[in-house]
Amino acid sequence: MRGLDHGFEFTGFLEGWRGLVEGNSQPVALQDVKELVGKGGTFLGSSRTNPFKKEGAVEKCLANLKKLKLDALVACGGEDTLGVAAKLFKLHQGQRGRRSENHG
């Protein structure tokens, strides 16, 4: 959470890609994650959702990123999670929401 030193705010998507598709998110603060390093696991939940395998889901992901005015997406997970993130980046890297100078 080094981004806190730079004034960044963080948002987590509940149940991974499903949360991004459905627009289910919550703010993430340092107290939410500081103990995870020693424990592992997820506090946001997970799912087997792949937006590229559901009709219209990729478009919903992009719309929710724009709606939330997020500057970046950081995917944490295994091979499937990172594969979806890489494909989303390659296909849609120029379509993210507008940048906010105060990251708020």
Commentary on this structure:
The protein has 104 residues and is mainly alpha-helical. The chain contains five helices and two strands, in the order E-H-E-H-H-H-H. It has a two-stranded antiparallel sheet with strand order 1-2. The chain is globular and about 35 Å long.
> Which geometry do the CA atoms define?
globular
Distance between the termini: 16 Å
Q: How helix-rich are the residues, as a percent range?
A: 25-40%
Amount of beta strand = 5-15%
Q: Which strand order spans the largest sheet, edge to edge or round the barrel?
A: 1-2
Q: What is the helix tally?
A: 5
User: How would you sum up the major sheet?
Assistant: 2 strands, antiparallel
Number of strands: 2
What is the average of the pLDDT values? Answer: 85
H-E string: EHEHHHH
Structural class based on helices, strands and sheet pairing:
mainly alpha
Write down the Rg. Answer: 14 Å
Low-confidence sequence ranges: 96-104
Overview in brief:
The protein is mainly α and 104 residues long. The chain has helices spanning 17-22, 30-33, 36-39, 57-67, 79-92, and strands at 10-13, 25-28.
Jot down its keywords.
104 residues; 5 helices; disordered C terminus; mainly alpha
Present the secondary structure layout.
Elements lengths: L9 E4 L3 H6 L2 E4 L1 H4 L2 H4 L17 H11 L11 H14 L12
Antiparallel strand pairs: 1-2
